[in-house]
Write a structure and sequence with these properties.
Number of domains: 2
Order of helices and strands: HEEHEEEHEEEEEEHEHEHEEH
Helix content: 25-40%
Bound molecules: 6-O-phosphono-beta-D-fructofuranose
Number of helices: 7
Radius of gyration: 18 Å
CATH class of the largest domain: Alpha Beta
Structural class: alpha+beta
CATH architecture of the largest domain: 2-Layer Sandwich
Number of strands: 15
Strand order of the largest sheet: 4-3-5-6-7-8-9-10
Strand content: 25-35%
Distance between the termini: 30 Å
Largest sheet: 8 strands, mixed
CATH topology of the largest domain: Fructose-1,6-Bisphosphatase, Chain A, domain 1
């Protein structure tokens, strides 16, 4: 619905701020808890990927902290099969929604994006999307999205209707370092996931052209790779593959939040033919090809995949 006040006149800004502050505080605990949790956990996530102990730890912490916020009606995570119901239906109004003096939202998170980087001690992130609708929801139902990047320093990007802000986190406290974050006009970097032989021929052709123009920056954690695009301009993609046409990234937990952030920063997102935010979701853990970056680069991508 994308406004700072929902149709019933309820203010959404304090809700978004509460969620953002909670993610920031929890991120400090997640970061500290990474030491000693690099090993594989016993289980797999609902997408069939093996989990690190740190994935499970981060999910449990975020579920505990976010579900205790009154306005959060649903919590969903890449690491758990079903949504956790923790209050009235997100986005519902009147009697269906319970007390409408406070709005209800759903929060979808990827607790530790790029956690396979734990073994090699490279960057990772925590991604979150705040939807004013029950999950699975379309990206246009997002009222805010953001991520924490566990790099040499811990930073946080938050996007809402008003724009994109970058913070540095110290012990969970946020300090603004950049307001009105926008993609630089002159793109510099690109990062494409998946194995080259598994890329469809039309994407390979696009990649060949991009390689002659931009500099490769790929680290294998979407958050870190997208943050390079936000910083320097360029394009990040995890395309549909020959072996899996939906690619690897999950719509609710990765595609939508990242699409929202990049679009708010003045760029474009695409699943190959339209904005990721326009995709009607079918299920909570469905995948989508993800391409985000400067307008012109995404326009060319869509022409290449036509
Ligand atoms: O969520 C999956 C993820 O870790 C993303 O952060 C990242 O973009 C991708 O997988 C990396 O996949 P690959 O190892 O295939 O490059």
């Amino acid at each position: 619905m994308n406004s700072e006040t929902d149709p019933s006149g309820v203010k959404l800004e304090p809700v978004v701020d509460d969620i953002t502050a909670t993610v920031a505080r929890t991120a400090a605990e997640i970061r500290q808890g990474l030491v000693g949790r690099r090993d594989k956990a016993a289980g797999e996530n609902p997408s069939g990927e093996s989990q690190a102990e740190a994935d499970v730890y981060a999910d449990e912490l975020l579920a505990d902290r976010l579900a205790s916020i009154e306005a959060v009606g649903e919590y969903a995570s890449e690491e758990r099969e079903a949504c956790l119901d923790c209050g009235p239906t997100p986005g519902a109004s009147g009697s269906e929604g319970g007390d409408r003096s406070s709005p209800t939202v759903a929060v979808a998170v990827d607790p530790l994006d790029g956690s396979s980087n734990l073994s090699s001690n490279n960057a990772m992130g925590t991604v979150f999307g705040v939807y004013e609708a029950p999950l699975p929801a379309a990206g246009r139902d997002l009222i805010a999205a953001g991520y924490v990047l566990y790099g040499p320093i811990t930073t946080m990007i938050v996007a809402d209707e008003t724009g994109v802000t970058e913070y540095e986190l110290t012990g969970g406290e946020r300090t603004i370092v950049r307001e009105d974050v926008t993609l630089p006009d002159e793109p510099v970097v690109y990062g494409f996931g998946g194995r080259v032989p598994d890329w469809p021929a039309d994407f390979r052709e696009y990649a060949n052209a991009i390689e002659t123009e931009l500099k490769l920056r790929y680290g294998g954690a979407m958050i870190a790779d997208v943050n390079q695009v936000l910083t320097y301009g360029g394009v990040f993609a995890y395309p549909g593959l020959e072996s899996r046409s939906g690619g690897k990234l999950r719509l609710q937990f990765e595609g939508n939040p990242i699409g929202y952030i990049v679009e708010r920063a003045g760029g474009r997102s695409s699943n190959g033919n339209r904005s990721i935010l326009e995709i009607e979701p079918g299920s909570l853990h469905e995948r989508t090809p993800v391409h985000v970056g400067n307008d012109e680069l995404i326009d060319r991508l869509e022409s290449a995949l036509e």
